[in-house]
Write a structure and sequence with these properties.
560 residues; alpha+beta; Jelly Rolls; eight-stranded mixed sheet; five-stranded mixed sheet; 19% helix
Length: 560
């Protein structure tokens, strides 16, 4: 059990090491050593020997400075050393394995250069907010940026300017969102048919809804309560186990009212629309835990859980609307530790629009996205009827993914590209692009589609007798992201009519002008419908480009 001693160390130093090892063996479960890169005669990094103890204390011995350090065990940092991945030192929330430090060690002359810089976990004894965290970690910012999978300059900007950004004690980035204002909570004026639209958009029982059943990726909208234990949210003085109660608006948690079920339906419809371009199943039906948690790089079925939390166990301390870690959706080593994302109804309200905006936003952090703001505000609230999902869209009817095309944007990241690098690919094209491979339509029947790529064009064909017909392409009934331009082509492929109405909003929950229809008298023959995406106004300050104009639609041709 005694670790191999580097040949470049003195006999006396070797004896000291072995002495410490023998002293610890009686108290600890078993020793493990973080593997270091070495040559035949010299270690290029200090070796950290980790003794995991039954009393949840870890004794770390640094060969370079012969110092024995004692510390409380907690969840390890993700190691970038493939030789340490999956080892016993990384099993369980109490295990600790720290990667090699930056100062070289080998002979006595090297050891006299001074103590090694602390492992990253020692930089932050507790979660710290933005600027405070930055002041502590500035000398190690490059390492932290790599650990979080983002550029060093971007991490520095985020910590320096975004008051809602935090680093936990392991150096992982997470966000603690502000609560919705009173105005934002009351912004959505329900139209008389809101419940009808929500139910129509979400066919089936409220807790069996799926946007893409069978996908290997999942976003689970958890309304019916959840137990959180052994996660990052249980550290820092928080309870070791938390039982979150179900979403509730009438004081009866044992029964789901029709109104509560309609909220579940509408939230699902809105979030499903936001994630419609991606190969992911947004669902309200509890999947097996194995469909959420990722066990390793070979596990290709995973996702995230977004808990709709009506309790105060965390929210009362943060005074926030939600919390989520960044870039952990496809984590291969500590996936369950950074779960779930949380939306607090005490912070955003109990209405469907706000819950949905927050749920898409928090899941967006999980898939690697950061906040869309300006040089003066952390969250951009949009303009006209539009807002970015990673800003704040409570008061806007059209919220879309963004690449910072609006005026004075502080975040130019390509949302679709970032999400793609964090586990969610775009859906495959579902309909032909041209007349040669157009999808056949039947008069009076509805065909559904997903506009997933900004370069996509979906084409449909139909054979008609002479008469007057209505050609319609409808955006999602609830929370549409796709703004449709519809073209009617004759048998020669020539455009004979185009519909592209101006978009807007009747209230913050109801967009207008996203769907398009053409009524026209035609002669007998074959016709084509071309469904394309479009923008509106200027993305700088009045509207949006085609970039985020993607989502679900349906097409239908009717007589009359």
């Amino acid at each position: 059990l005694t670790p191999q001693i580097p040949t470049t160390l003195t006999v006396a130093a070797s004896q000291v090491i072995r002495s410490h090892v023998r002293q610890l063996l009686g108290r600890c479960e078993r020793p493990t050593r973080s593997r270091t890169t070495s040559s035949r005669t010299r270690f290029t990094h200090p070796t950290i020997i980790d003794y995991r103890c039954k009393n949840r204390t870890s004794h770390l011995f640094n060969i370079q400075n012969l110092a024995l350090q004692k510390r409380t065990c907690y969840e390890p940092l993700a190691s970038t050393d493939p030789d340490t991945q999956g080892t016993g030192a990384l099993v369980g929330a109490g295990a600790v394995l720290f990667g090699a430090l930056a100062v070289a060690a080998g002979n006595q002359a090297d050891a006299q250069q001074g103590p090694s810089p602390a492992p990253l976990d020692q930089l932050l004894g507790q979660p710290l907010q933005g600027k405070t965290a930055l002041s502590k970690v500035q000398p190690r910012l490059a390492e932290l940026a790599e650990r979080n999978g983002i550029a060093e300059q971007q991490l520095e900007r985020i910590l320096a300017s975004d008051k809602t950004s935090w680093l936990d004690k392991d150096g992982k980035l997470f966000y603690s969102e502000p609560v919705a204002t009173a105005k934002e909570r009351t912004a959505t004026t329900k139209s008389p048919n809101w419940a009808k639209r929500a139910v129509a958009a979400a066919t089936g029982p409220a807790f069996e809804l799926h946007s893409k059943a069978g996908s290997n990726r999942v976003i689970y909208l958890d309304f019916d309560g959840h137990t959180i234990s052994g996660t990052a949210w249980n550290t820092g003085g928080k309870p070791a186990t938390v039982n979150i109660t179900p979403y509730d608006t009438d004081g009866n948690t044992s029964n789901w009212s029709t109104a509560e079920q309609n909220v579940v339906r509408e939230v699902w419809a809105r979030v499903a629309e936001d994630y419609a371009p991606f190969d992911v199943d947004v669902t309200t039906q509890a999947p097996p835990e194995s469909a959420i948690t990722r066990s390793g790089s070979s596990d290709q079925q995973y996702g995230t859980r977004v808990v709709i939390d009506p309790t105060t166990w965390y929210q009362s301390g943060c005074g926030c609307g939600g919390v989520a870690y960044v870039g952990v959706y496809d984590n291969t080593r500590q996936h369950s530790y950074y779960q779930p994302a949380l939306v607090f109804t005490k912070g955003v309200g109990t209405g469907a629009k706000n819950i949905a905006e927050a749920a898409s936003h928090e899941a967006g952090h999980n898939v690697g996205l950061n906040h869309d703001g300006t040089s003066s505000v952390g969250y951009y609230a949009g303009h006209g009827a539009w807002a970015p999902i990673m800003g704040v869209g409570y008061t806007k009817a059209i919220s879309q993914w963004s690449k910072g095309e609006y005026s004075n944007a502080n975040n130019k990241e390509d949302d679709f590209a970032v999400v793609g690098r964090n586990g969610l690919a775009l859906r495959a094209d579902d309909h032909g692009n041209g007349t040669a491979d157009a999808t056949a339509l039947t008069l009076g029947a509805t065909a559904n589609g997903i506009y997933a790529s900004d370069s996509d064009v979906d084409t449909f064909r139909i054979d008609l007798a002479a008469g007057t017909f209505t050609f319609a392409a409808n955006a999602a009934a609830t929370g549409g992201d796709l703004d449709i331009k519809l073209q009617l082509l004759n048998s020669a492929g020539t455009v004979v009519a185009t519909a592209d109405p101006a978009s807007g909003q009747s209230n913050s929950g109801t967009p207008t002008g996203l769907s398009a229809s053409i009524s026209r008298q035609v002669t007998a023959g074959r016709y084509y419908l071309r469904v394309d995406n479009t923008g509106y106004g200027s993305p700088l300050n009045t509207g949006y480009s085609t970039y985020g104009s993607r989502g679900a639609y349906s097409v239908k041709v009717t007589a009359g």
